[in-house]
Amino acid sequence: ADLLGEGDLVVDGGNSKYTDDEANAAMLAERGIGFVDCGTSGGVWGLENGYALMVGGSDEDVAKVQPALDALRPEGEFGFVHAGKKPGAGHFAKMVHNGIEYAMMQAYAEGWELLEAVDQVDNVAEVFASWRGGTVIRSWLLDLLVAALDEDEHLEKLTGYAEDSGEGRWTVEAAIDNAVPMHVIAASLFARFTSRQDDSPAMKAIAAMRNQFGGHAVRTAPPPGGEASAS
Fold first, then answer.
1. How does pLDDT run across 69-91, given as a tens digit for each residue?
2. Active-site residue, 157 included
3. Which of 17, 30, 86, 101 is an active site residue?
4. 101 catalytic residue (yes or no)
5. What's the whole-number average pLDDT of the chain?
6. Which segments of the chain have a pLDDT < 50?
7. Catalytic one among 6, 30, 94, 204?
């Protein structure tokens, strides 16, 4: 705010908390500076595929930066939304997106663990790969899990440890504040907490998918007599 002047505009493209946007927009408005909050999805693949953008702010402010947003978004009809005019609308939408992402990854991971645990299925990685066509559960997350299994079929190089980057917690907090039942997303968040207590096979799959789409750090199994390392 000290560096900018009246008529300038700030775009927050990080995964900021929507309540911070409200305070920042009000502070900047006192100086005649506009504010747009922009939730950004696409992970490390966004540079190649385009970034899904969810923005909040006035029509006027969004219009000012629309050319830049159009340059960053994916080609085609989808991948961009002006979620609302109130500050925080974009980041709130991205927060819920990430909560759903938590739940989807948890479901894939638990299914993978069950298939690995039974004797009936010989080719678990091939089963997941087959689901990429014609099924109702095909998705980019499924593609990424298959890519991880191609690199490490039984995910033996990973420990079942997965961080949460904040948005899942905020989603559950917002659900509590608004009395919205959120059984699955809450359970997926708590599963990540579980991963930090004991080595979980399902959480290996979560860690693998987070590394695939976002380049998030993973912890490899320790060498004999050594300690686990993060990479």
1. 999 999 999 999 999 999 999 99
2. no
3. 101
4. yes
5. 93
6. none
7. 94
